[in-house]
Every structure is written in C-alpha cells, then in structure tokens.
Amino acid sequence: MTRPNDHQEDPQRDIATDVPHPPGGLLRLADGLDRIISFVTRTVLMVSGLALLLLLFANVVARYAAGSGLPFAQELPERLFPFFIVAGIALGAQRGAHMAVEALPEMFDRRGKQAIYVLAQLCVIAGNAVVMVEAFKVGNMSWIDLSPVLGLPATYSYFALAGGAALVILATVAIIIRLVRIGPEALPIPNPEETGQ
C-alpha cells in the first residue's frame, strides 16, 4: 500500500492519483499543474485559516478584557472566508473529493468510462468558466460596496470566487490529461480520511 508521500521517491508516479505512468510531456504538465495548485491552495488555506482563527481568538480576548469586541472582527472574516472556501474547493477538485455519481460509468467498458469521465470533466470546466467570468464581472462592479469600519470593497470576495474557479479549471485540465493519456483508472480517488468515508 502506498502512502501520500511515496510519489516523491518515484518520479514516474502521478501526484494526484498515485497511478504509475510512463514519462511524457503532457503528463509532466499535469504534474506541474498539480504542484502549483496544491501549493497555492494549501498556502491560501493556511494563511486565511490562521487569520480567521487569530481574529476569533483576539475578539474573544477583547470581549472578556475590555467588555466589547474588536470593531473590525465581523468585517475582516467576511472578506477572508471566501478565500478559505474557494481554496478548499479547488483542493477538493484536484483530489477528487467532491460528490460524484458513479452509476452511469459502471455500465460501460473501459473506453466508455474514459469518454464519460472526460465529458464530465469538460462540463466542470464549462461551469467553472461561467462562474469565473461572472464573478469577475460582478467583482469589477463592487468597488463601491465598502465595509463600514475598514472600508474594504466587496470586490475581493468576488475575485476570490473567480480565482477559485480558475484553479478548479486548471485542476480539471490536469485530470483530463491523465484520463486521456492513462485511462479511467487515472481519475483521482480521495483518501477515506479526507472524505469521512
């Protein structure tokens, strides 16, 4: 049985799916995309999660020490939370941890499964492209929506959504590359401890 870090010792092993594969330019591209997405999403999750935790802690301390909370303690989490959520969504997409219905692919042979999985991933790309474009449009219109205490525009939340959709698209492109080059067994399967199964 392989552990999550075993792929570091074997360059021929795929990062997201732990499936051995022959070397190739497109597969190296998929591995590179996965490394970038993993780094970006984990960094955003750590920074925003830590900031949210520290804000909550500081607000509780301020309530007990001074009798009132920090005036910006409600606004700042509202601006940070979208970054935290979309980073988790992108990381989940990369690892195959989102909900999926597997009844239809199981009715087909290997080639049929491969085609259905590729089609499903193309639908994910199309849906996230719409979200990305619309979130960017709304974000550009939201500069005037300022928070009362800090004066932060709401536009950053929409840009976070657009960026998260872009990361999901990149993660899905990497999955499609593997599906086409390797087959349906390259579809990422999440660790049970990550999904609560």
Protein architecture, described:
This protein has 197 residues and is mostly helical. It has one domain. The chain is 64% helix and 0% strand. It has helices spanning 25-66, 75-95, 110-141, 155-181, 192-195. It is elongated. The model is unreliable at 1-17 (pLDDT under 50).
Q: Could you state the oligomeric state of the chains shown? A: single chain
Please tell me what the overall shape is: elongated
Distance between the termini: 18 Å
Tell me about the largest β-sheet: none
Instruction: Give the strand content.
Output: under 5%
**Helix and strand string, N-terminal first?**
HHHHH
* Rg, alpha carbons: 20 Å
Determine the fraction of residues in helical runs and give it as a percent range.
55-70%
Domain tally: 1
Label the structural class. mainly alpha
Question: How large is the count of helical segments?
Answer: 5
Low-confidence stretches: 1-17
What's the β-strand tally? Answer: 0
Domain Tripartite ATP-independent periplasmic transporters DctQ component: 53-181
Main location: membrane
Family: Belongs to the TRAP transporter small permease family.
GO molecular function: transmembrane transporter activity
